[in-house]
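TEACHING EXERCISE
Course module: macromolecular assemblies
Task: Read the component lines below, then compare them to the predicted structure of the full complex.
Student: A.B.
Group: 4
Components provided:
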Amino acid sequence: DAMVIQNPRYQVTQFGKPVTLSCSQTLNHNVMYWYQQKSSQAPKLLFHYYDKDFNNEADTPDNFQSRRPNTSFCFLDIRSPGLGDAAMYLCATSLAISTDTQYFGPGTRLTVL
Amino acid sequence: AQKVTQAQTEISVVEKEDVTLDCVYETRDTTYYLFWYKQPPSGELVFLIRRNSFDEQNEISGRYSWNFQKSTSSFNFTITASQVVDSAVYFCALSEARAGRRALTFGSGTRLQVQP
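Instructor-supplied answer key:
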């Protein structure tokens, strides 16, 4: 089945220690998104890639970076995680921009000690 | 600016009851899309439905049905004969079609608890 895969499902890191979250897709979609979702809140878009074009949301902290080495994979790098970065990180894909349906992966729950 | 309001923070029902989740949206665009997603305790956002602004026909899928009314800017979701497996947080979302828009605007979500 075509799907969006995220690894790991649970990640524990220490305050200030860089961490990388991974997302892969078998849907062959052009667009990949990263969302941050804190407890009892709606998902918040951090950035997205349309093919290789990177688009950052205006309020995404510099601490968050992303890489998309090919169509299938996208990574979220948190350079110096703070306690406030503990959250669920959701990867999503869509065929095109704007109104196409976004399909989400299972998420990675990040804990910062 | 676009906005989605889900006024019901939490709803609790007993199994087999019908339940309606409300969604009210704001947009200046004439072309837009509305979505519902389900988020079970596992955390994954599961796509349920996508509806464009030109299609006001109501939709039914098994126990799920959606009522889209442009006159009241609402896109409500009804679960008939609810089951324990329906327990989740449900998000309504809006996406505008004009060039450059790429984000989903989510409502704050409604937590549904179905008691056995």
